[in-house]
């Protein structure tokens, strides 16, 4: 444990600091989109505090999983690790960065297209949109930090790394290189969990949570999650973060 902390201490603190940025900058968006039932006894101030605390706990767990189990199956954050943990620095290219931007744009374009197919079946969703629900451009922009940093740390660095490692030790323990299906399974599982994770906010954002709405939330978010997971596998966490940020800018700021 001492060796792990000595080697990765700076990296852990840096990643955790980034998640605090994400948690704090998403609070305005939550303020505009969340309606708390009076009978719940909850206040938005309590919601904000809970959001930051839960995010910190989830992020710390995900960081530890990613730095331990992820490394064993070739997953990780190569640029941050090389910079802060003394490892070999991975080559960084503008081409790879632009590719991540393109992936994020394509992922969101596809999810928006699929989401349009659900709209005729979501009268409750449409009815819940009113003038009071309009989110300012700046608040939508700020969601890119929470989505790109926090959610990618949890779902890709944490969940996906754990699933790939678990499948690896179960089905390919002796294999020097894990078969591709293990990574694909990890991508799909983390993507579905990414979609499921968005269900928690549904009651506070929509007038009626129907079966169709649940399917829509999980499926649409899972599509984007699979793109981000593929980037995490092939390029690293940093590129998945960039793609997710681009997606959130388009979805929450430009499209609103």
TrEMBL record:
Keywords: Hydrolase, Membrane, Metalloprotease, Protease, Transmembrane, Transmembrane helix. The chain crosses the membrane at residues 12-31, 46-69, 96-118, 153-173, 180-201, 213-233. GO terms for molecular function: endopeptidase activity; metallopeptidase activity. Pfam families: Rce1-like (PF02517). GO terms for biological process: CAAX-box protein maturation; proteolysis. Residues 136-249 form the CAAX prenyl protease 2/Lysostaphin resistance protein A-like domain. It comes from the Bacteria. InterPro entries: Rce1/LyrA-like_dom. This is CPBP family intramembrane metalloprotease. It comes from Paenibacillus antri.
